[in-house]
Amino acid sequence: MSAVADSAGPKPGHRGRLRISHASIKRGALWLLTASSWVALIEPSPYEIAFLLVLLVFAVTGIRFSQRLLPLAFLLLVFNIGGLFSLIPWMSDPDAVRFMAVSLYLMITAVVIAAILAEDTLGRLETLRKGYLFAAWCAGIAGILGYFNIAGLGDSFTLYGRASGTFKDSNVLGPFLVLPIVFGIQRILNGQSGLVRGLLSISIPLLALFLTFSRGAWGNLAASVLIMVALSFLVAPDAARRARIVALTLITLMLAVVALLVALSFEDIRAVFETRASFDQSYDQGVTGRFGSQLRSIPLLLDEPNGFGPLRFRWLFNQQDPHNVYVNAFASYGWLGGFSWLALMAATSYVGWRLAFRRAPTQQHAIAIWAVLFIHILQGLQIDTDHWRHFYLMLGLVWGLTAAVSPVRIAKAKAS
């Protein structure tokens, strides 16, 4: 790939002229991609527009598709082909057509993001991380302003009394904020950020996640942090690093407990917390509740190789969505799509766990991303994640890391 080296000196006749390298342009486009992901209330969202810009920039300057990405591309393609077959009887339904269009678009984003990491991997990961943190702050501020009804924004940025910010659902805003928080905690444990500075960097996203009162998001964060800490401890190079991880983890945990107690000292917050913290929710109970509808759908799906059709589950089960991405895969994408999704999650789990233990300059990024994505895969048992943009972002990042060209391999290739 051709690029102007950042360290190259000025050439005759070019003194004083602003020169921007291809690498800088690419990183700028990637920063804009994740930085724009905080707005999800409108469609197409700024993220979609930024992705088109990324696609254009990399198409012009060069992008490499590795054979290691074939499982990702193939399984996502088969998954969507199943959805297209399932769509055929419902082509007159604009919502169903739009649903499949979004699925196809998200497939493309995952594959392209994976391919982008083939070169300048560490630099591009850092750029994406910084853009994501910016987005988390913007979405978090909107959620906090809405929850406390500052400047009358309660109607715009809350849903059922819970912070939703610039997302359509509190249960999506919460999981969206998990990755930058995990990255922030990891940087504290690894000494890349001081304790105070690190906690300040995640303070707004953390408060906003709490105010979503999403049980799934709370559990997602707790489990993701637990896995990240465990993996960081296991791969630490020496006893001193492991001791640091343990000590800072305990300090961070104590500070989190103190912050929670302070938040619960406010009566309004405590009342919502007590309601949401209960596992005994009315919409989950009975044969017509969330889990009852999922169980009743399974015998029907066994007789429907083509599924019910995109978004048709709600027409059969009391206007409820499946709230289970695996049930939804079979219901909206048919058997072909359902089994492809299961295969993709299994293959991703295999490469994700291998990445977490592979010694490389990008290992810490891989640990943080995989810890969050793995819990998202499990969280699919209680919510539909197949149209979450940040899920496909992490999916692309994990597969992209498996195909990344290491500096050692580049040096060997040049020497041969």
Report the principal-axis shape: globular
What strand order characterises the main sheet? 1-2
User: What number of domains?
Assistant: 1
Termini gap: 19 Å
Mean pLDDT figure: 88
Strand runs, count = 2
Q: Strand count, sense and closure of the main sheet? A: 2 strands, antiparallel
Strand portion: under 5%
- Oligomer type: single chain
Rg of Cα set: 22 Å
> Low-confidence parts lasting 5 or more residues at pLDDT below 50?
1-10, 407-416
**DSSP helix fraction:** 55-70%
What structural category arises from helix and sheet content?
A: mainly alpha
Provide keyphrases for this structure.
18 helices; mainly alpha; disordered C terminus; two-stranded antiparallel sheet; 416 residues
Notes on the structure:
There is one protein chain. The chain is mainly α and 416 residues long. The protein has one domain. Helices cover 69% and strands 1% of the residues. It has a two-stranded antiparallel ribbon. It starts with 21 loop residues before the first helix and ends with a helix.
Produce a short descriptive summary.
This protein is mostly helical and 416 residues long.
Write the layout of secondary structure elements.
Layout: H1 22-35, H2 46-61, H3 70-87, H4 94-116, H5 121-147, H6 154-157, E1 158-159, E2 162-163, H7 170-176, H8 178-189, H9 195-211, H10 215-235, H11 239-264, H12 267-276, H13 290-302, H14 313-316, H15 325-356, H16 363-379, H17 389-403, H18 407-415
Antiparallel strand pairs: 1-2
Helix pairs in contact: 1-2, 1-5, 3-4, 3-15, 4-17, 5-8, 5-9, 7-10, 8-9, 8-10, 8-16, 10-11, 10-16, 13-15, 15-16, 15-17, 16-17
